[in-house]
Design a protein that fits this description.
alpha/beta, Rossmann fold, 3-stranded antiparallel beta sheet, 10 strands, 17% strand, globular, binds 2-phosphoglycolic acid
């Protein structure tokens, strides 16, 4: 794993945006894997600024998001569909036909997972996957103990993830307990991976991800085996390395 450390989240976002810009310059039809959560928000702001300044043409990219909550419709303000349109897609003028998220309201969730997985393969696979990391080491919603060989699947969220997500909902019982997520295997097959983490709360899990054993209890530790994975961290998240 290559590790890049910057002073603060803003500098981290600028490096991430530059890496994505370079990728899209090399390959305008890039298939980009995207993440939600707080961490990538400054990155998405930076991409919108680059687009507005005419410095990055993302009109030909295709995107696949990591995950979506089960039970939330795309127009629900806590759905990841809604998040992505608000934070990025409107701002970069992307064609709605080229952005993809799994549907959390599909009648047959297993069939939806299969459809999503096949769609990624049909697009030629993911060139560059952006990841955040949960406090428990999850990537996407692949929680501790989930098998590394999973493809897109329905995941049960752990108590730690439910508590971490609680801040976005009015009450705890509104926090979804399940999500559709790309599996570890889906993520691992991306040609490049860029995991971003900021803040002191992530320092412990980042140290385990980089220096710990490669075990399903720390899902992100599998990235030690990836030939082209980068960790982009602020100083605080890198403090225990
Ligand atoms: P965060 O979430 O960016 O809001 O910390 C990351 C994650 O849970 O994957």
């Amino acid at each position: 794993m290559q590790i890049i450390v910057r002073d603060n989240p803003q500098q981290v976002a600028e490096v991430a945006a530059a890496l994505i810009r370079a990728q899209v310059l090399r390959k305008p039809e890039t298939v980009l894997g995207l993440a939600t959560g707080s961490t990538p928000v400054p990155l998405y702001d930076a991409l919108v600024r680059l687009h507005s300044a005419g410095e990055a043409d993302m009109s030909r990219i295709t995107t696949y998001n990591l995950d979506e909550y089960v039970g939330l419709a795309p127009d629900h303000d806590q759905s990841y569909h809604y998040f992505m349109w608000e934070k990025l897609f409107y701002g970069i003028g992307v064609d709605p036909g080229q952005v993809h998220l799994p549907s959390g309201i599909a009648e047959d969730l297993d069939a939806e997972c299969l459809r999503y997985e096949e769609s990624i393969q049909a697009a030629g696979g993911i060139d560059l996957q952006v990841l955040g990391i949960g406090l428990n080491g999850h990537i996407g919603f692949n929680e501790p103990g989930d098998t590394f060989s999973n493809r897109t699947c329905v995941a049960e969220l752990t108590e730690s993830t439910i508590q971490a997500n609680r801040r976005f909902f009015d009450s705890e019982d509104q926090v979804p307990r399940r999500a559709l997520t790309m599996g570890i295997r889906t993520i691992f097959q991306s040609r490049e991976i860029l995991l971003i983490a900021c803040g002191a709360a992530k320092a412990g899990i980042i140290a385990q991800t980089v220096h710990g054993p490669i075990i399903s209890q720390v899902p992100a530790s599998v990235l030690q085996l990836h030939p082209n994975a980068r960790l982009l961290l602020d100083k605080e998240a890198a403090a225990e390395l």
